[in-house]
Amino acid sequence: MIWNLAIRNLRAHKVQTFVVGSIVFFGTLISVIGAAFLDSVSLAIRKSITQSIAGDIQIYSSKKDVQFSVFGNSQGGDFPDIGQIENFPEVKRAILENIPNVKEVVPQGINFALLNPNTTLDRLLTDLRNHPETNALVQADTKEHVRTLAQRLGATYEKNALGFLKVTPEELITTRAALARATSNPFWDQFDSNRNDSLEFLENKIAPLESNDAMSYFFYVGTTPETMMRAFPLIEMVQGQPIPPGQKGFLFNEFVYEKTIKHKIAVRLDAIEKKLHTDHITISESKELQQKIQENVNQAPEFASEISPRVSRELASNLQNFLSIASGTTAELLPQFFKMNDANFATRKAYFYKTIAPHIVLYRMKVGDVFPLTAVSRSGSPNSVNVKLYGIFRFKGIENSPVSGYFSILDILTFRQLYGHMTPDRKAETQALEAEMDGALSAFDASNASDLFNQNIAVTSNTEGTNSSSNSSSNSSSNKDSNANPRSNEAQTRAKKSMNTKDVDTKNYTTQEMENGVTPNAAIILSNPNKLDETLRNIRKLFADKNWMLKAAPWIEVSGVLGQAAFVIKSILLLFMTIVYFIGIFIVANAVLMTTLQRTKEIGIMRAIGGHRSFIRKLILSEVFLMSTIFGALGVSAGLAIVTWLGVKGIPSPNENLEFLFSGPRLYLSVSASNLAISYGVAVLVCLGASLYPIRKAVKIQPITAMRAD
Fold it and tell me: What is the DSSP string of 439-494?
């Protein structure tokens, strides 16, 4: 009977029913979507962190009281000395044997490095030194190219010397004399007869004058590469191959490779195209894109000098036809070519890659190259080690995120060498190298080397967003500092040449040999990540039982600000949901109260004919319950439909920085059955709770008073 009356009353008061029902509907809808967003973001952040670098748990020494973050403290790139895990192989074996939920234990060491690839002049001089047998036509073209570059460097040097470049009169005279010799006819007439001395002169006196816009600053993870590749599912090879098991080597992150190793003009063209397609803006309305176009125009003369004279003459005719210009050299036509707009951008970019790019060094480093990698050792001075580039990889889904994009992969043996922990073989090798260089490196001490390293980092900190004048200033500043100490330049050039021509270590190491050494930290991968807390307790108990001075920290603790983002987002959403329900309680209570007061006479009649207070209470509760269950179910259904749709379409990331939080360019929502049940149950309970006050007012209505009401 009560349910029939409740249904009749709801039908009789359609407006009030619709108002209260709408509140329940939208409250439940927001709850379902909010819970789905909360869960999806939390899972996405965890995936980005745990499946790229950090793992589910990190272990490291507890002897030093330092705050450790795998992404650097405050994401500023500061990696303090956290000590080392003593006897890592034993620790790894104990964890794998005693903790059943542990899938992998990956040794790691994290640091930052500076890469200084060869400039155009470095590459040409290397070709002349290593390939003297090349045919006469190619040799002549290469020599002419070197001479042309020396002329350009001379003009740049004179311009800077008259401006802000601070050099002593003696250095000015010496450099001018070297440039005059490098561009003179007698020098090139006698080049082949005195080839080694001529190349030595060019490498030590002329090449250091050329600024390098491809220096890159990035982080790297020293590890056993095959274990890292197996343990972290987001790692995906793009070019080349993984580092072979037991081999030393290096894997470049595609993010750094494409933005710093690739030619700056090509990087800007790619960035413009991406903006046009993803943001759907035009060059004419974007100051940022116009600035990139102007930077390419400003760099055109320098770019023209990278093309060999023979190819430049051939390209000039091609550019004349393409631009419909009657005459002009390549150097004169390229600024016109790079003045792109919305109408010609696509055509000119395609022409650049098809016709011009094959004649320049598009990437300063390619898969298979051996190069010196420079990093800061634990003493604070730069340290260089020769490494081989085996391939290019990316973190799948978050490849555009700067957070993970700056992390490359290095074998842990080379990490130890760079960090200052040298093996006996490496010590002998270094001593032989120092003897071969005949003391050249003694010209610059640790303090000078540290200044040089810091200077290089400052130069590479320039972003594409800086204007051309600031870029010019940075490059000129670099030249100024480089020329301030000719002996340092000569020592650096000899060291670079020696390392570029020295074979890389090809010895095959066992896993035990690679892991049996200094290991600052290690990532633990779990078979079931949902058992994180339980596994963490077991690992900590294991360390305590064995008296090991080691810490075990969950991923959210060792990922710094990024890990805290999940907690912050969750807190904000929970606060939002609390406010929504809190407001909903008052609205529902008010709506039910108004409905009850409008039915005062009806309630009075029911009391007069024998209806008890308990009957009135049950009737109103039944009405509220029916409304909340029906409209709550509709809200859950609508919310589930929206979440399912967003699970297919995804929510686009507003920018590349948020891609890490979304674990990709889009956040795909999903919701669990438990969250649906919770949202539904909370909606019903909120409505029932909101009806308590109206019920209390209703049962206090006196029959006589109610029957007299209009």
Answer: TGGGGS-HHHHHHHHHHHHHHHT--TTS-HHHHHHHHHHHHHHHHT-HHHHHHHHH
* C-beta separation of 257 from 266 below 8 A: no
pLDDT in tens, 344-354: 999 999 999 99
Which run of H or of E encompasses 651? strand 651-652
Rounded Cα–Cα distance for residues 270 and 31 (Å): 41
The helix/strand/coil state of 517 is coil
User: Highest mean pLDDT range out of 95-99, 174-178, 560-564?
Assistant: 95-99
Cα separation, 402 vs 48, whole angstroms: 12
Q: Are strands 407-411 and 216-223 parallel, antiparallel or unpaired?
A: parallel
CA distances from 121 to 132, 199, 365, 489 (A): 16, 11, 14, 15
CA distance 374 to 385: 7
For the chain, give every domain's residue range.
2-48+562-708, 263-362
- Global pTM value: 0.76
CB 447 within 8 A of CB 453: no
Question: How far apart (Å, rounded) are the C-alpha atoms in residues 600 and 258?
Answer: 75
Name 349's Cβ contacts closer than 8 Å, sequence gap at least 6: 269, 272, 273, 340
Q: Distance of CA 512 to CAs 83, 103, 709, Å? A: 21, 18, 92
DSSP 204: I
